[in-house]
Design brief:
The protein is of the alpha+beta class. The protein contains 15 helices and seven strands. It starts with a helix and ends with a helix.
């Protein structure tokens, strides 16, 4: 694993899980604080790190950096929360059903201090038939479409891809408008706008609709697998959600993920969460997953991606830096048919 600094970062994330007491960690002596700050920033858990550490044990420079990031994250999340309220009201007036994905709704379920979970965008799910109406609501709120560009037909874009991206630069707000939840339509095909839902309170008096527990778990597994979990914050979110579940509850969650079409992404996520956070404990599910060679290989690839380098880099920062992500995507469902279809999808999506 990537050293004492990464190990402390794991402890910081775990200390923020919703079921854990509000107790501060004492940083070990001899820590490389500049490296710790770099890791926290890369993995986008700097706010969680600052919230977990006993501040008197942090070097002055690191304390200044982490506290500044924590304040910035909290301010950004407050702005996002206000915008989520406005979006929910606007879409309700327009009679457009929507769900909020990831972001503050997951933070509120996973962490004691959800406003310190880093985020930069708002993920919305609508029915594909409602994409034009949803786009009109976003435009009315001052958003402009950034992906795809203005010359591309939005309906045709969403027929091929799962989301478009919208921005309000003057407010530093960004929306990803989803019409499905996976790049490959064979993954979690049954999860959509009509799936079971729940409301999650993200701030006093503000509750947002999101996926119910089983569907949310399956979705987060597939979402993390799509980028091979290269940022710690994604697997920390998932580990926070399942923290404290009993062995039978974990069994049921995994079984339901298979019914929903999460495939090997769910086993990969659970083994990775267990390796980093001990999420499976002594659950028999761990042994069952470890006997599946392909799931085990996928989990190992994810571990190398998130924890295998002393100084992590964006996968796109080096030539062929995304190769591991692409080959693991071919294996998320069994069978040569899925692998060939996924390879074709990757080639199509590489073409503007």
């Amino acid at each position: 694993m990537a050293g004492a600094e990464f190990a402390l970062l794991l402890d910081c994330c775990r200390a923020n899980f919703a079921g854990h007491p509000d107790e501060r960690l004492v940083a070990p002596a001899g820590l490389d604080w500049p490296r710790f700050v770099r890791l926290a920033r890369f993995h986008r858990v700097d706010g969680l790190a600052w919230n977990a550490l006993a501040h008197g044990t942090v070097s002055p420079d690191a304390a200044e950096a982490l506290s500044g990031e924590a304040r910035s994250i909290a301010a950004t999340n407050l702005a996002i929360a206000r915008e989520c309220a406005g979006l929910a009201e606007a879409f309700a007036r327009a009679d457009i059903p929507l769900l909020f994905l990831k972001g503050l709704s997951v933070a509120a379920l996973a962490y004691r201090a959800p406003m310190l979970k880093a985020g930069w965008d708002i993920d919305l799910l609508v029915d594909e038939a409602a994409v034009a109406a949803a786009a009109a609501e976003l435009a009315a709120r001052g958003y402009r479409r950034t992906i795809p560009g203005p010359g591309v037909d939005l309906a045709r874009w969403h027929a091929r891809r799962k989301e478009s991206v919208w921005s309000r630069p003057e407010k530093r707000l960004h929306v990803e408008l989803h019409t499905r939840l996976a790049d490959n339509g064979r993954l979690i095909p049954a999860i959509g706008i009509d799936s079971p839902r729940r409301k999650v309170e993200i701030a006093a008096g503000l509750a947002l609709p999101t996926l119910a527990a089983d569907e949310l778990f399956a979705y987060l597994c597939v979402h993390g697998a799509s980028s091979l979990w290269f940022r710690l914050k994604w697997i920390s979110d998932l580990a926070g959600l399942i923290d404290g579940l009993s062995a039978p509850e974990l069994d049921q969650l995994y079984a339901r993920s298979q019914e929903l079409g999460a495939g090997r992404a769910a086993g990969q996520a659970l083994l990775l969460a267990d390796r980093l956070f001990g999420s499976l404990g002594d659950s028999p599910l761990k042994n069952r997953l470890m006997t599946d060679l392909m799931v085990r290989r996928l989990a190992q690839a994810a571990f190398r991606q998130v924890a295998g380098r002393a100084e992590p880099r964006e996968p796109t920062a080096t030539p062929l830096g995304t190769w591991r992500i692409h080959w693991t995507q071919l294996l998320l469902l069994p069978g040569a048919g899925f692998a060939l279809g996924e390879a074709g999808r990757q080639l199509r999506d590489a073409i503007p």
